[in-house]
Amino acid sequence: MISDMNESLILQLAIVLPLLTSALIIATGKNPNVREGVTIVSALVLIYFVFNLYSAFSNDPNQVISALWWELIPGLTISFKVEALGVLFALIASFLWLVTTSYAIGYMRGHGEKNQTRFYCCFAVAIAAVMGIAFSANLFTLFIFYEVLTLSTYPLVTHAGTEKAKKSGRVYLGILLTTSILFLLSAIVSTWVVAGSVEFTAGGVFSPDVDKTIAGVLLVLFVFGVGKAAIMPFHRWLPAAMVAPTPVSALLHAVAVVKAGVFTILKVCVFIFGIDLLPSLATTDFLLYLAAATVLLSSIVAMRQDNLKLRLAYSTVSQLGYVTIGALLASESAAIGSALHIAAHAFGKITLFFCAGAILVSLHKSNISEMRGIGRQMPITMAAFFIASLSIIGVPPAVGTWSKWFLLMGSIETEHYIIMSVLMISSLLNIAYLIPIPFHAFFPNGFTNKGEAEDSAISDVQSNSQIKEAPLPSLIAIVITATGCIALFIYPQPLYELATAMLETRAVNYAE
Amino acid sequence: MLLKDLFAVTMLLSIYGLLSATFFVAMDAVDVAFTEASVGAGISTLLLLVVISVTGRRERRVRHKPYAALFVVILTSMLLVFGTSDMPYFGSADAPIHNHVAPRYLNDSMQEINVPNIVTAVLASYRAFDTFGEVVVIFTAGIGVLALMSVSSKALSKSQPLNRPRGLYEQHLVIRIVAKTLFPFIFLFALYVQFHGDFGPGGGFQAGVIFAAAFILYAMLFGLDAATKVIKPAVIELLAALGVLLYGSVGIVTLLNGGNFFDYDYLLADPIAGQHLGILIIELGVGITVTCVMIMICFGFSLRRRAYEQKVAIRPKEGAV
Amino acid sequence: MKRHSISLFCVLVAFWLLNSGHYGFLLLALGIISISFVLYLTHRMDVVDHESQPLHLTHKVFAYHLWLIKEIFHSNIDVLKHIWRGQLTITPTLKTIKISQQSDMGKVIYANSITLTPGTISVDLENDEILVHALDASSLEGLELGEMDKRISKLEQI
Amino acid sequence: MIIAATLAIFCAMILAISRAFMGPTLYDRILAVNSLGTKTVLLIALLGFVMGRPEFLDIAIVYALINFISVIAVLRYSDSNQFKENSSENEPIGKER
Amino acid sequence: MDLVISISSGICLLLGSFICVSGSIGLLRFPDFYTRMHATSVTETSGVALILIGLMILSPDLLVFAKLVMILLLGLLIGPTTGHVLAKAAYHNGLKPKLTKSGNEQSSVPSSERGGDISKS
Amino acid sequence: MFIGLANTWVAILLMMIGLYIVIAQGNLIKKIIGLTLFQTSVFIFYISMAKVEGGTAPIFSSDISIYSNPLPHALILTAIVVGISTTALALSLIVRIKEAYGTIEEEEIQGLDEEQD
Amino acid sequence: MVSQLPVLQVILPLMAAPLCLLLKRSTLVWLFCLIVSFLSLLISILLVQQVSTSGPIDYAFGGWDVPWGIGYRIDQLNVLLLIVITAMSSVVLIAAKESIAREIDPEKHVYFYILYLLSLSGMLGIVATGDAFNIFVFLEITSLSVYALIAMGRHRRALWASYQYLIMGTIGATFILIGIGMMYQMTGTLNITDLSVRLAELPQKRTILTAFVFIIVGVCLKLALFPLHLWLPNAYTYAPSIVSAFLAATATKVAIYLLIRFTYSVFGPSLSFAAIPLQTLFMALGLVGIFVASVTAIYQTNVKKLFAYSSIAHIGYMILGFSTGTVAGLTATLLHVFNHALMKSALFLALAAVMLRIGSVQLSSMQGLGRQMPWTMAAIVLAGLSLIGVPLTVGFVSKWYLLVAIIEQGNWVVAGLILMGSLLAVIYVWRIVEVAYFKEPATAQKGDVLEGAAGGSTEAPLSFLIPIWLLVGANIYFGIDTRFSTQLAQSAAQSLFGVSP
Q1: CB neighbours of A90 closer than 8 A, spacing ≥ 6?
Q2: G152 part of contact set with chain F, CB < 8 Å
């Protein structure tokens, strides 16, 4: 499997490749087939690269695969390092790029969108940024790619070009840039000044006798600074970004943006503060409860939304809270749980969005109330929707089960019973806002009151009784991701190994 | 400044120039007095007059924002008065100013440069580079005024505007004859000042101003066309540049001869003679540039004024561009 | 023309020498150069002629000036008296006086002489009339008697 | 005696300046400036003697010349109608409006 | 000899300065522009002349003497010229002299000459 | 104290009059006049510090031993030139402003500019 | 000849200026100026090398030793400025020909180049000289030429802007003159090195303090520090585009240099910072300046004016670094001097290109320009990112140093405020990006009202793109390879603290 290519080179190629792709996309923009061919091919190559890295890493976890690009200021470098969590993230992202591209081809053509070249190009840049984030060796590198990600996704969010889109784009950009510059950058600089280093180090960079107040403030700055993690006061951008085309939403929610956010938080908690330092900080608890509140509140808000994408968006906010909780709980199980949840949520949510997009493309419906009975027209889609919902809720046979299990374990281990109950309640709420959708789709009249809904629903059914699934590439994508949800439940081993490996490096370090 | 008549204000400024120049004489600064007399009372009044003749003589209305200004001024003056409290008293010989750098000029310049006018020695040799800067400043001003005021030859038709007053010399018999008598003497006096800067008050700058003033007088009396016939504006421009170059080339020559910039010792075999030659040439450069720039500025103003009058005559309500 | 140039040259040389006070080779050479330059320039400006170099008047002008100085002296005393006595004593008058001079030069000398004598000012010079403003009517009368006019006319005739 | 003369000239100058300030017409001011110039020439000549360095009379000559030139300049630019003297300061000349 | 020099120069200076001050007082006291001109012309002629003569007597060498003479000549040449020009300009620009009734012979401005040639901007 | 620094204080007073005119006056030409006044007063300040009691003009003469300080004189000569250059440029700007705006009053010019916005 | 480099640096453009008058033809003059400017750049590079190898260079004019004659002293601080000025001037000049052809009457081209060279040499003179009065003289050369250059703008407001600048600038210069006079009175010398020695020994300080205040206020007027900034926006906006680019890159930098030179070299930090609450004052002014100017920038509709206000904000950053009074802070300031020159010249040059093509720099007229002039707009975006301080651009590096310097002092609040200032920069840069890229070109609605805009204004000519992308490249290059710039800035800052502890 491992070619004779140097792993370090592969690592760099993984970051550069999407960038090259974006250039190629611009160059071939005139011819859509070539353009999309290029995207797919490079997605495949990227998967190959990342998989290479993964296998190299899993063969020998102690092997250091790194690349130094530049030393900006003495000690402040742009450098990359392969590490378990990063590999996990990169695997998910690269795989989902392929899937999303496939979906996007169907969606964009089916929907007749404008500026498709710009879309693919920015998409590729975003993937490059994600790769950079996943493999960054220090906060500074991470910050750079974090900003690149923000900027490159802006054109995607405002893709429609309408006033509403632009307004949302401004909210999106405003919140993400504000938090990142105001909090994240100052946190980074302060870390640099306080700890003298911003390298991701197993066990954290702060010396144990660091001033607890300062460290606590820094933690708050970090958590708020990563606006992409959508902790409650700074979550507004996510629903606002719903105006974007569905593949973009998929990118935002599953592949790149929010995942980059929680990934950053997890990474900061584990590698900057270290899970040993975290519990001793006064602000950890505060942030935990904030995250818990985010989980609950956004679930409640989600229930009240009629727009499917908006409901999914709030659902995302709530799910991200899980990851943050996992990171902040600072126990091994919780950390593993949140790492797993990144993957689980990615697969689940992307499927849900794909489905929403498919419904929009085929039936031009975006409101839940209009979706009664569409299960007959789009059986495959709605089946996938159901599976993905299970994953989000965390019931077998979907991958979400595992992550929620570990998170619960973590909360019990650290005796945060309130958090535990929040997690439980939230799961119930998940059921309440997700399950009715496929249910009504397949059983438009429910189990009772057949007559009431008849007027509205039956007429739809009559006019569109034949099967009208999304375009084939999209459908394939939906099937793949839905399958992924189940497959990973059955075979979670690689994910679990990576998640534990993340913590093992720490153990190794401490052993030395 | 309650006067609303700009003209009157200009007259008062001219008086101020005269008075300050007198004060400079009383303070032993004869060279400065010389310059201030020709500049403060002469050229700057002249320029102001030209401009007022274009822009109008009366101020439109009284302004009502003196408080902020007053505040600034009072603050500044309090600071200044505070600053003066440590100063050495007027005329005291033991002030640091008279005991550090200056004594060398006073004691050694006769041996080193052999120019009786110590101010000239300082100006042209010890601090020759400042003076070069000064020449460049005036050259800059000249070019700047040209850049702002030059009228394209197309815009300025040669024909006289409708009701142009006759030249002053036609109206004023007396002036014509008196001025004609005086011109050669003024010019020669200017040249005398130019070449005797080493020995007494005077030098290139003062000479240039006097020379230019005389020429401007000629232009005023006999008309701009007559003056441009005597010397073309393009030639004046070139001469102005030439003056700067002449000054600078002295420095270049000293460089090439192996000395530092403006080290006149390297001009000739005999250092003292070299100093003399250097000072002579640079003063000449200053004189040429100053003369030409002053004439240039006045020509620029007058030409513009004429063009403006023509424009106004043709299109009476022309205001904004 | 040549005459005037030569006379101007001589005057200028005197002017230079009296001003300079340094008679080294360098400065004398510079003086010659300067004077030549001034001559060139003034010729270019066309200001060297009988008006600026009134050679033809030279031999009579002294006598006239002596007389003028006497007049000035007298009128000075008059005006001083007026100044110290105050406004009431003055009788400002404006009057046109015929003049008999033919040349511009003569007119100018007349006008300037009038102005030079305190108490009278030549306000306007038109063709063969001079408008005179006088501090005191009496001084105007003196002028009207024509003594000065006669003297200048005599001066003018070569 | 020279010092007394200097002081006297100085007084005369002050009087002239006050005339320049008082006006009332433009020509009064010009006249005052002109007369001031004459006195300045004298003052400078005297100052040279007071200070024992009478060789700086060049300055006085320059003053005289500049004085002449500036008065001529004033008159040259009083060609334009804005320099019409009004009998009363504020009222514009009627016939030209 | 020194005494003679200093006394004679002293007298000249004293007289000259007296005339100068008188002229300035006249400048202040006289009622209108034209009459004030008379006052200044006193200064410009005898005042200047006397002071300069006083200085000439004191002058240490020929150069200074020559320069004083030059100043004097210049003054005598320029003084009346500027005076005349000034008066003419004032008169033509409409400044009317205050006259006593008897001498008010020609009070109108010769407007034909200049009235028409001024373009109003 | 008073006598010793009176000279400077007069210079300061004059400077401040000039500065006040520059700031408070709305007429562009008056501003320039104020500026000239300001600068000239600074020159007075410089020159009065060059004076030495009993000294004479710094022009060498064999029978004189005390001279005033020549350096400020040299500096101020330069500064005067700078001043007149600035004035000339400013005046040419004023002429152009008059042509372009039709006025040389600060308020009116600003009013015209705002009108245009 | 090597020992004569300091003087050649200044004299070369100074002597070249009058020579332009002899050449007459516009193209020839341009070529000549270009050559001269690049030669100056070469000289300054040589000077950098020489200073870094053998320390400060002293040069005595006329062979007179320093307190008596005028001396040049080129040290680490000077070379930094010298290289910034010459490099910016050279790069900007490349584009001058086409821009001038459009914006200035043909018969004034020669004057333009002369004034340009004069202002260049003036700035070089200010920086190079070691004599306080000489600073004043060259300050005036610069100022006068710059006033004239600004007034050559096409809009009538250029005249008014120039006039305002002239008044403010002259007051500033006169204040400096007063300050120099007082220092001279107390010490009897004008040489900067000599001054610092003698000032330190003086027992009485009141006059010195006054002198200091006057010089600082004068310099701040030239610097356009916040409350004294009123002249700057109009001046930059209505000047000819090339002039804006040149000025934005250099003029305020020279003023910063003077500020640093006077506080550190002449008066010495002990006097400057101990006697007056200068640090607090400057920190406050810097911060207020950043916010007021940035917020004002957000509301501008004229892009040139927008960036002019942004310049004022960036002056605030420089002042902040300066106000820390530490080596780190000063390094940040100097680094920002270097970096800000790069970004602003790139921006203004790009705007010059826009001006060339569509004849306006109003925000509304830039709609859809991203497609019509892709390279130019890309440059504006990149330089704008640099302005914000996005990593991998120069803006980030200097902001990083500034933040570190300020956090080291424990000023957390100030650090936060600086970051908030950057956010404001995001907003105003983003407005441009949005208009240029996410709006349809104005052609549809406006038709042929805008000359050139109709039917697609094309990409700027190569003579623009080359300098613009040189600068943008430098923006990124020096944002990545910071060794050269930081070393320069750091050694300069250290030398200042070394000279007068």
Answers
A1: A14, A50, A53, A130, A131, A134, A135
A2: no
Q: How many domains are there within chain C?
A: 2
**Percent above pLDDT 70 for chain A:** 92
**What's A388-400 look like in SS3?**
HHHHHHCCCCCCH
The answer to whether A and D touch (≥3 CB pairs < 8 Å) is no
Q: How far does the CA of residue B14 sit from the closest CA of chain D (Å)? A: 8
Per-residue model confidence (pLDDT) at position G190: 87
pLDDT in tens, B255-308: 888 888 888 888 888 888 888 888 889 999 999 999 999 998 888 888 887 777
Q: What are the backbone angles phi and psi of residue B168, rounded to the nearest 5°?
A: -60, -30
Omega prior to A397 cis, within 30 of 0:
yes
Give me the number of domains chain B comprises: 2
Q: Domain residues of chain G, as ranges?
A: 1-276, 296-501
**What is the Cα–Cα distance from A315 to A249, expressed in whole angstroms?**
13
What is the per-residue pLDDT across A107-162, written as a single tens digit (0 to 9) for each?
A: 777 777 777 788 888 888 888 888 888 888 888 888 888 888 888 888 888 877 77
Task: Name chain F contacts of D56, Cβ cutoff 8 Å.
Answer: 57
Q: For position A246, what pLDDT does the model report? A: 78
Count CB neighbours of E21 within 10 A.
21
- Whether residue A189 lies within 8 A of chain G, CB to CB, comes out as yes
Q: Which residue has the higher pLDDT, D84 or A185?
A: A185
- Which of B127, B244, B277, B293 to mutate to test binding with chain G, by most G CBs within 10 Å of its CB? B127
Q: Return the amino acid letter for D29.
A: R
**HEC secondary structure over G180-217:** HHHHHHHHCCCEHHHHHHHHHHCCCCHHHHHHHHHHHH
Alpha helices in G129-267 (DSSP H): 132-151, 157-187, 192-201, 206-223, 231-238, 241-260
C96 at E interface, C-beta within 8 A: yes
Q: Is A202 helix (H, G, I), strand (E, B) or coil?
A: coil
**ipTM entry:** 0.85
Q: Which of A390, A416, A243 is nearest to A331 (CA)?
A: A416
Which residues are CB-neighbours of B291 under 8 A, at least 6 positions away? B207, B208, B209, B211, B212, B215, B239
Listing DSSP states for G249-294 in one string gives HHHHHHHHHHHHIIIIIIIHHHHHHHHS-HHHHHHHHHHHHHHHHH
pLDDT digit string, tens, across residues D20-43: 887 777 788 888 888 888 888 888
Q: Where are the domains of chain E?
A: 2-95
Can chain B be said to touch chain G, i.e. do they have 3 or more Cβ pairs within 8 angstroms? yes
The answer to whether residue A502 is domain-embedded is yes
Instruction: Check: CB of residue G471 under 8 Å from CB of residue G342.
Output: yes
Task: State whether F56 and D51 contact (CB < 8 Å).
Answer: yes
Residue E120 identity (one-letter amino acid): K
How many Å lie between the alpha carbon of E38 and the closest alpha carbon of chain D?
11
Q: What is the pLDDT of residue D79?
A: 56
Residue C50 included in any domain: no
Domain range spanning residue B36?
1-83
Task: List subunits contacting chain A, requiring 3 or more Cβ pairs under 8 Å.
Answer: G
Does residue C137 share a domain with residue C68? Answer: yes
**Shortest Cα–Cα distance, D65 to chain B (Å):** 8
CA torsion angle for A452, A454, A457, A463 (degrees, to 10)?
A: -160
- F-G C-beta contacts closer than 8 Å: 71
Give chain G's contact residues with A (Cβ, < 8 Å).
389-392, 397, 400-401, 403-404, 407-408, 412, 415-416, 419-420, 422-423, 426, 430, 434, 437-438, 479-482, 486
Most B CBs within 10 Å: which of G2, G141, G191, as the mutation test of the B interface? G141
Report d(CA A83, CA A81) in Å as an integer.
6
Q: Residue F59 domain-assigned? A: no
CB-based contact, B148 to chain G, within 8 Å: yes
Chain B CA closest to residue C111: B174
